[in-house]
């Protein structure tokens, strides 16, 4: 009897310990950070949806769920699904119904004012969607109806800047629009391999020959990763950004300066390492010394135009004049020398302080943050346009724009890209002219001014 009692007591103790252990685990689990599996599954599903929306963007949708949304979803049926009560989606639908949008199978350029406006119409719709499902349904619907380039740009920008896109990793643009990053020879070989069902690996050569000294640094200027970095940076900090989209891009003008200065500084280092002079400025009243043949073809619209050596800048009909570039640059340099920017209302904005470089970047690019875009123009953006249109400035041959007007084959890819960046009034001119150099005391003692 005693032995049985002991056994009973021992197993009872074991049971109590087990119960106590289970309770401890339960309490610990309730206190543990909520890495819920459903969240990961939801994010994975969203990632898959974005990838499918971008899959073969020039072809119809291939996935049942998205095909159904494109066919059956009515964007303006329930305006309560949008933060702006459907204002943006109604506007885009009106433009679509009136056949005012750019047709499909046509090249797209962010620096074409009308094409950019159309892409931002779709971006505005996606940014105003309250839920993920609403955004996906709109994306699928308009993917089948708007220009492919405008759709890809709007979707990338929306995923980057909308809270709905948090956690999503966008595929690199060279996977979505490979023709914008690779030579036409490689694209043609890939087409042939696909049609003949012959697997293959193709080596992409540089655009020039050994007779061109600039080919010594082609490994840098024509690097796909570097060009993707550049276009992605401008997606993160777009010049068209309006704070009405939900937040302010802090010190955007200063970051614009910094990014382009870093690119130019690195390029100078590569040139010196290859026995070449540092890159010179671009002069509006002098010939463009270096020509460029991109060896690249649009998906639709023909080849990227070439530019011969020593071409002279010409006015681009109806868009920009060389004289305007000179005038705007002179005004910016005057502002640097005088130490202030004149705002649109006539007030003076001091640039002899820590915010000065930010204001200066805003007027040079120029972004919507520019305090006086009408007076100072858009030096950087207009330079892209005028450089990209020199192959056919008067529209005589109806050529598409060249590399200079695109972010993917950014002028980094061609010899004139870095002179264009160099032409941007260097922040070192601004800093050295009006701000005294730091002393040892100021560097080591933060309270010293």
TrEMBL record:
Start and end residues of each Hemocyanin N-terminal domain: 45-161
The Hemocyanin middle domain, residue ranges: 172-402
UniProt xrefs under SUPFAM superfamilies: Di-copper centre-containing domain, E set domains, Hemocyanin, N-terminal domain
Superkingdom field: Eukaryota
Signal peptide feature range: 1-31
Family matches, as InterPro entries: Di-copper_centre_dom_sf, Hemocyanin/hexamerin, Hemocyanin/hexamerin_mid_dom, Hemocyanin_N, Hemocyanin_N_sf, Ig_E-set
Keywords tagged on the record: Signal
PANTHER family: FAT-BODY PROTEIN 1-RELATED, LARVAL STORAGE PROTEIN/PHENOLOXIDASE
Protein's recorded name: Tyrosinase copper-binding domain-containing protein
